[in-house]
């Protein structure tokens, strides 16, 4: 009996090996950076996200503005203040933590510079974890408001939690400067303290859509969106901007957290489109673009700021090559990337530069002698200056006034 | 389940170690329980009422150590109120009728979405505007019974086909329904706002003052100890008490006895003339409507509803609250709900505990790891839950039960 | 029933819309693809079904055993000197096969070990105490929290951020899909062939093991009647360990196959939904029934793919659950019924 079992199991191993041999037959041409068969690491595709052009709201290319000196959080080093802090609220743990951490670490870089230069003004950055959960945010928000030393808030990170807590911060008169909540409705709630530190979807969407149609000349685009607040809003704006070029027969909706996009790839494969636009985040975009390429779909892959993250390139590998990514954010200067990496131990990601810029603005406010919450709101309301990502000036409802979009290529 | 339970201990072992149920009840908890059971009902109220008041005042009293640091205690207690209602509702289904429901969160979602769809300005069926039939000030209160009714109906719709299934099949089908509810909320953009959710949901506008221009239930009323979270907590306590009286009476009625019979042995119950399907459906519908009430509280307190949080993991957490506290025991499941809500918040933001300096936020990062370990350890050492239910003679047997137990204790001593 | 269904479809039409043309156009591609995915479901489903058959216990943590398997095979590949790279490795057929087999064995060993450890730590103490089924479920939930959070928070600290953490692992690609031949209108790739053939071999081997060997007879005996089986000299404890081991080994194999198909799927939260689907597949086929689990997995994979194209990709999970509910309404014990040892009412 026992020997019989053994014979069976060796037969199994043999069968398995045969299978793999059959499968392996196909593998001859796979991979373009051929390496020897010793199993050593082959050269990774040396890809990065490179800024290409800057476009305006009509999608036309514009000269990149004369590079203004970005605001320096260090100031002149003579600021004095005592016992003040700035709060940061967003998902720091849980499935959406990466985004919140990008913002937090960006802000920390600015803070370190500031505190180093200004011995007389040591500002504290207090982080509050909302897990991206609106109900959790309502439990955290009173703590932020109740901390008298907090003069301004960087966040909340997501639109949902902002919706749930906006009235708390508004009633407390606390500056709410979000680096990442893009839902256009947020500025129509009448909150006097809410300022958005990036272009909302209503600007980015049409600009990119026009760029795709008018400048790149695409006639048929498949718009794939995830089910996040951000993805839905962006897809809506893109579809509107694309007009007839948006092909509803190959449009698809995926869920955040999905890793398998076979059916979507299949639909796009049969559609004969000029490009795919993905509205969502890099965590899904990376497997999606990889499966598109694996599935033989070679049309351009276009996406926006949610995908504009080094993680996208590192996870999608060579499949990311040629992807076109928009962002209402400017390229992170190399020295920022280096400082960020030194501080956070990882490369800057989506909204890291926003975190840095918005923190800088609040720190400049504190340095200018602001000592209360109302003062900081006033300071931001009348602020005008440039940062790493763009120039900042807000209109009366709290949207950025100038909104130029950068187009990046992965190459 | 009608067949021999496979999980029962082999005879050889059980002779050495008596099973938990066979152990004589002799602890302090049992003494208290006996004392409490012996009290006449009015006296129970007299004793219980100050206790309820004390629990209600917890967020105001600001007790050291107990009060959460990183999150607002009032708002945490508001969430506890919602979870307590859920635990009571789910306890009817799981603890009393013995129906394993993994998709209970679906009813929570239906309740929350009913209120949101009726009162959110971003919903297509908003009834609070100029043409609506709900006044903005009282919209939440008016939507509450609607939410309860709609979830009861959804319980009926989901229950009538599925309750013919038994045991684990019921578990997976309810799980499926729970997910379907969430996915419908996510996919039917025109009605539910999809992933964007519905914002500015109505809440009771009372206690409007200069400081709180939108009333004490508005999220904006967040300053001080007596903030909106506390008011929501108190509102939920009122609803919990009403529900407890309602469920307690059901438990002692024919319905409750039928539930116990179904839980213990469905086939025997059927043979003895209990219309099992009807009473299972009753349990499902009552449980659902309580979940819907809790969902309505959620929509009002957070003032924003989106699909992400109505997921399987939270549904499973609800079940954990029930089993952890002691399924079948109403007070036990409330304690379970408290632990589920409170423990993840406990370490957050703490810098010291009993004088020992700790980095609470870092510990809090591992909270689900600890939570998982705690669940496993608790189930190994106290599988019947923290405050387990005791079988007792229902209806007429009260005095008899007390006398019998007293004698048993004397004998044991 | 069908009248109501048609009516519901008419009502739902403007809300969700159907695309029958797209389904017809892509039918064969979707079928082949669905079978690939279904094969992964099927292998994971076997773990659920065996444990259920023997212990009448939903091993809720099995999805995490699968997840650990994904990390296991990844770690094995890293130990072999592979690193995350943008491009696929070009190793030649023989070496690819060798490495895949090593990764497969590594992944299976780690998953199998975790499954057995899980049984030892989480379930055996409860069994000794004669706990009721719901308690097992809660413990399993606790165990899956522990396994997930271990990979999420502890593993990156132990490995210096090379494994685990918030983000998915950067893929190590040994095989890149290349079309081998066309079946009807579907392109069949090498990855598809590897997955389907390996899954078939593993499924057949498991089936033979259960039905033809002494140990398999032990499993069937315990599933049928644990007390009598013990009296007949079968060690129940050993059989239970064996059951968990087989489930874990197959989950580990499924993890490697899944990673070939979805190289970016290696993430701490990546097992949960797949596990639920696999459990659905097990129930669909008739839980406790080995062949039912295999059939259920394949069916679920294929139907999900059809449904996605017919109703829209966002309805994928709804299709799976509705299918499950409809089947259980008609056949309350699943398609093939429960029959690892006997049929149960």
Outline of chain B:
globular
- Alpha-carbon Rg of chain C, integer: 21 Å
- Taken as a percent bin, the fraction of beta residues of chain B is under 5%
Alpha-beta classification of chain C: mainly alpha
Beta fraction of the residues of chain C?
A: under 5%
Which structural class is indicated by helix and strand composition of chain B? mainly alpha
The biggest beta sheet of chain C is recorded as: 2 strands, antiparallel
The strand count of chain C comes to: 2
Question: What is the mean pLDDT of chain B?
Answer: 83
Distance between the termini of chain C: 25 Å
Number of helices of chain B: 17
Overall average pLDDT of chain C: 85
What does this protein structure show overall?
The complex is a heterotrimer of chains A (411), B (413) and C (345). Chain A is of the alpha/beta class and 411 residues long. Chain A has helices spanning 2-24, 97-117, 134-146, 159-172, 201-215, 229-242, 262-269, 282-294, 310-316, 334-344, 352-367, 373-381; strands at 49-55, 61-62, 85-90, 124-129, 150-154, 175-178, 194-196, 221-225, 252-253, 275-279, 301-303, 324-327, 385-386, 391-392, 405-410. Chain B is mainly α and 413 residues long. Chain C contains 13 helices and two strands. Chain C is 72% helix and 3% strand. A two-stranded antiparallel sheet of chain C has the order 1-2. Chain C is globular and about 55 Å long. The interface between A and C is large, with 74 and 76 residues.
Describe what is shown at a glance.
Chain B is built from 17 helices and four strands.
Ordered list of secondary-structure elements with their pairings:
The complex is a heterotrimer of chains A (411), B (413) and C (345).
Chain A: H1 2-24, E1 49-55, E2 61-62, E3 85-90, H2 97-117, E4 124-129, H3 134-146, E5 150-154, H4 159-172, E6 175-178, E7 194-196, H5 201-215, E8 221-225, H6 229-242, E9 252-253, H7 262-269, E10 275-279, H8 282-294, E11 301-303, H9 310-316, E12 324-327, H10 334-344, H11 352-367, H12 373-381, E13 385-386, E14 391-392, E15 405-410
Parallel strand pairs in A: 3-4, 3-5, 5-6, 6-7, 8-9, 8-10, 10-11, 11-12
Antiparallel strand pairs in A: 1-2, 1-15, 12-15, 13-14
Helix pairs in contact in A: 2-10, 2-11, 3-4, 5-6, 8-9, 11-12
Chain B: H1 11-16, H2 28-38, H3 41-61, H4 73-96, H5 105-119, H6 139-162, H7 167-187, H8 189-192, E1 198-199, H9 228-251, H10 254-264, H11 266-271, H12 276-302, E2 304-305, H13 312-325, H14 330-346, E3 352-353, E4 356-357, H15 360-365, H16 367-381, H17 398-412
Antiparallel strand pairs in B: 1-2, 3-4
Chain C: H1 2-16, H2 20-25, H3 27-55, H4 62-79, H5 93-129, H6 133-158, E1 179-183, E2 186-189, H7 190-212, H8 214-224, H9 226-231, H10 236-261, H11 272-285, H12 290-311, H13 316-330
Antiparallel strand pairs in C: 1-2
Helix pairs in contact in C: 3-7, 3-10, 3-11, 3-12, 4-5, 4-6, 4-10, 4-11, 5-6, 5-10, 7-8, 7-10, 8-10, 11-12, 11-13, 12-13
